[in-house]
Amino acid sequence: GQNIDQPTEMTATEGAIVQINCTYQTSGFNGLFWYQQHAGEAPTFLSYNVLDGLEEKGRFSSFLSRSKGYSYLLLKELQMKDSASYLCAVVTPNQAGTALIFGKGTTLSVSS
Amino acid sequence: DSGVTQTPKHLITATGQRVTLRCSPRSGDLSVYWYQQSLDQGLQFLIQYYNGEERAKGNILERFSAQQFPDLHSELNLSSLELGDSALYFCASSDTTDTQYFGPGTRLTVL
User: Fold this and answer.
1) At A82, is the secondary structure helix, strand, or coil?
2) In angstroms, rounded to a whole number, what is the distance separating the alpha carbons of residues A1 and A27?
3) Taking the CA atoms of chain B, what radius of gyration do you get in angstroms?
């Protein structure tokens, strides 16, 4: 089966650093995405990891360990606008195409 | 703005009815994906089309169907609607990479 786990909720304060973890067990793995989603809006692309290691992009970094089925998203210098849901998604082969299997998301609340 | 457009933005209908949701992918993208997002289930993959052909299928109900037209826009048809079909429906598109860009969604309410 397909299983992607991430914490349901996290809280942090402005200026802090937060790490959102994601573990996965899927039939097939072609890569892992992190998306940000504000309530009622579309998910927006944050990062994509295919190989093990750390990918850094501004205030956001994402790490992947394929052998451990584990990823994390690191957000630095938190701002109020970072309050959102963060979705971990695994790319899996599906018939002749691919499908994104999403975790249920981690709701991050940033306070001042 | 991702470049993916969806219409309508909101849709309210009654049980038993049929609706059609429309999606236009980003310019040049050949792949279109449909997702359903409900409060308790999160984002669920429904189906993928590539250049007019079905490529991948998730847990899409038999009451639901989709197609992609020669101009690459896609439609998701939902029939015999039930209360539980109320959800946000997202379309996403991608080019030759795996990165999917999501449209703003259609909020479907079944009364």
Assistant:
1) helix
2) 7
3) 13
What is the rounded CA–CA span in Å between residue A112 and residue A106? 19
pLDDT (tens digit, 9 = 90+) per residue, B46-71?
A: 999 999 999 999 989 999 999 999 99
> In this complex, do A99 and B58 lie within 8 Å of one another by their Cβ atoms?
yes
Task: Judge: B55–A105 Cβ closer than 8 Å, yes or no.
Answer: no
CB A36 within 8 A of CB A43: yes
The tokens 């236009």 sit on which residue?
B24
pLDDT-based confidence at A49, cuts 50/70/90? very high
What is the three-state SS of A60-77? EEEEEECCCCEEEEEECC
**What pLDDT is stored for residue A94 in this prediction?**
87
The answer for residues whose C-beta is within 8 angstroms of residue B81's C-beta and 6 or more apart is: B13, B14, B15, B16, B17, B18, B19, B63, B110
Mean pLDDT over residues B8-18, rounded? 97
**Is A9's pLDDT higher than 90?**
yes
Distances (CA, A) of B58 to A69, A84, A97, B9: 22, 26, 11, 24
State yes or no: cis peptide before A43, omega within 30 of 0. no
For residue A34, what pLDDT is reported? 97
Residue A103 DSSP one-character state: P
In degrees to the nearest 10, what's the CA dihedral of B108, B51, B67, B58?
-70
- Which of B45, B46, B96, B107 would best serve as a mutation to test chain A binding (most A beta carbons within 10 A)? B45
Identify whether the C-beta of residue A4 lies closer than 8 Å to the C-beta of residue A103: yes
